[in-house]
Amino acid sequence: MVKITDVARHAGVSPSTVSYALSGKRPITEDTRRRIEESIRELGYRPHAGARALASSRSNVIALVIPLRTGVHVPVVMQFAASVVTAARRYDHDVLLLTQEEGDEGLRRVADTSLADALIVMDVQLHDTRLPLLRTLDRPSVLIGFPADPSGLTCIDLDFRAAGGACVDHLAEKGHRTIALIGSPPAVYARETGFAQRVAQGFTAAADGHGLSSSVHPCDPTPAAAKELAGRLLRTHPDLTGLVIHNEPLVRPLTEAFQAMGLRIPQDLALTAICPDETAEQAPVPVTSVAVPAEEVGAKSVELLMRKLEHVPVPQSTLIPPLLTQRASS
Amino acid sequence: MVKITDVARHAGVSPSTVSYALSGKRPITEDTRRRIEESIRELGYRPHAGARALASSRSNVIALVIPLRTGVHVPVVMQFAASVVTAARRYDHDVLLLTQEEGDEGLRRVADTSLADALIVMDVQLHDTRLPLLRTLDRPSVLIGFPADPSGLTCIDLDFRAAGGACVDHLAEKGHRTIALIGSPPAVYARETGFAQRVAQGFTAAADGHGLSSSVHPCDPTPAAAKELAGRLLRTHPDLTGLVIHNEPLVRPLTEAFQAMGLRIPQDLALTAICPDETAEQAPVPVTSVAVPAEEVGAKSVELLMRKLEHVPVPQSTLIPPLLTQRASS
DNA sequence: TTGAAAGCGCTAACAC
DNA sequence: GTGTTAGCGCTTTCAA
User: Fold this and answer.
1) How close A137 comes to chain B (CA, Å)?
2) Could you give the number of structural domains in chain A?
3) Of A41, A148, B115, B119, which one's alpha carbon is 20 to 30 angstroms from that of B299?
4) Within this chain, do residues A197 and A130 fall inside the same structural domain, yes or no?
5) Cα torsion for A197, A201, A207, A208, to the nearest 10°?
6) Which pTM value belongs to this model?
7) How far is B112 from chain A (nearest CA, A)?
8) 3-state SS assignment for residue A60
9) CB B294 within 8 A of CB B120
10) How many helices (H) and strands (E) does chain B have?
11) Under 8 Å between Cβ of B229 and B191
12) pLDDT at B68
C-alpha cells in the first residue's frame, strides 16, 4: 500500500506538505504542488480513510436513514437516496445507509463510533421517538419532514400547505366553484407525518380565499373505499366539479370509479393530486399534480448538513415551494 | 470522548484485554469480562470506527452499488438494498451506498481508501465495463446478475432459466398446449443483463420437454406495442391459450388489451409472468408469477461476501430457484 | 513556504 | 489469562 510518506519521499517533501497540498489548508508553492501531484499520480496514492478519520476526527461520511414501512412510496425514497448520494459526492462525502428498523441504536452507533459525521433522517413523524436523541447527539442532522415541535432541529420538506393551496388555485382558475379534498386515511391525520393536516389546511384556506365551497374526506387506501367514496361524493355533493387527491394509492381507483359512473374527466370532473409524477402519469387519465421534489429535497438536505458541519448557521425550517404540473385531468 | 484506555483503567485491566474482550479473539476470565462489560456500559464506551479500521485494516463496511437506470424496477432495488443492510448488520457491518453513475472510479475509491472491505454490485450487464476492475481489485465482491464470462467472480441471481421453465410447467400442468413468451424489447436480447435470453431458453426447453407448441415474441415496453402484439398473437396463433410475460411494464397493458378483445382471463387465456409481486398483484386480473426474491438474494450476497472476507471458498455461481405464486390469471 | 514530530484510538504481536 | 508496546497512516500543531 502506498502511503503519504512514500509520496513525500518521491516528491522530495515532507509528509505534512503532501497532506496540506491535498487539503489546501495552507499555501503551497506552485512547483511543489505540481511535483506532489505527479508523485501521487505516479504512485497511485489514495489516503487511507480510517487514518484520516482518526487524525482529523472527520470521516467524511454522512448517514442516511431510510424508511421501510408500507405507505411510503418506494420510488420516491430511492430517488431521494440517490440524490443524497450524488449531492454528498459533490462535497467529497460518502453515504452510509441505515434502515428505520435500527431505530435510535443505529443513529447512536454511527454517531458515537464516529463512523458518520452527520445524519439525514427521512420520514420524520409528528412525534418521532428519535427526536430527543437527535437533539442531544453531538452530530449535526437534517430531518426530512416536520415534527410537531421542530425546535432545536433542522427540517426540510415540500411545503404541503402550499401544495394543497396550489391545487385549489389551479381549480379555481379553471372556474370550479365546488371542490373536495380526498385525503389520507383517518388514522394518518391523528398521528404520523403531519403533512396530511398541512395539505388540508392549505386546501381549506385557499378554497375560502377563492370563495369556493369545499369539503374534506379522509379515505382508506383501498379500491373498495375509493369506489364507495366516489359514489357518496356524487350523491352528497352534486355540484362537485373539482377534486384534490392526496392519497397516492387512490389516484387510479378513484379515476376508474368516477369514469365507471359515467363522469368524463376533465369535462365533468377535474382531478388534481399530490402524488409522485410516476403515479400521475400512469393514471387512466394523466393527472395534474404536485410531486414531492425528491431530488431537490435530497440535494438541499446535504447542503444544509454541510453548512452545519462548517458551523455556518442554517434556517430551522426549509419549505420547498410546490410545482404544479398540468396534465389531461384538468 | 471515552476511549479504550478509560475503560481499561476503570475495569482495572489493560487496554488490550478490553480489546480482546470486545473481539473475542482470545479467552478472557469470566470475571474480567464482566468487569469490562460493566465499565463499558457505565462509561458509555464506543470504539472509534476510524481507529479500529486503521489498526485492524478492516472497516467493517461493505459498499453497495445500486443502479439508477430506467428499466430497473425501483421497488425491487430498494427491497434488495434493505435486505443487504439488514443482513450486513447481522455480521456487524455497515453499508455504504454508491450509485452506478460513479462507475469504476467509485469502486476504486472506496476500495483503495479502505473505506469498504468488500463490494456488492447490482445490475451486472453481460459485458459490464466494471468486470476487469472487479477482477483485479484486492477486495472481495459479489455480483448480482451474471456477466457473459463470470470466471474469477462470484455471482448470484434468480435462476431465470428455471423461472421460464416454471411458468411453462405450470401452464402445461393446467393443460395448455400452445403457449407464447412475451419477452423484453429486442434490444435487451442483444446486450444488457442476459436474463432475457435465459428466460427464453428455459421457456423453450420446458415447452419442448412437455411437447407444447411455443413461440417467443420480444416486445417494446409500451401500451401501444402491447396492443399491437396482442392482436397479432390472436391472429397468427389462434390455438394460443397460455402466456408467459417477461416484461414488467407490459403486464397491465397486455391484460387490458386481451380483455378488450373479448378474451376472458383465465378461461380463454391463462397468464403467467416473471415480474415483481407488486406488479402481479395490482394487475387487472392478479397474475400468477415468479418474482426475483430480492430479500433472499440480498441476504445471500452478504453471506457470500462474509465468507470471502474470511477466506472461506464460495461457489462461483449461486442460482436461486424460482418460486411460482399462483393467482387468478391461471 | 516548509519540516519535524506528536498524537488520533485502537489492535495485535510479543512477553510473561 | 493478562499486560506492554509498537505501530496502523494520517493531520496538525509548533518551529523554523
Assistant:
1) 13
2) 3
3) B115
4) no
5) 140
6) 0.94
7) 6
8) coil
9) no
10) 14, 12
11) no
12) 83
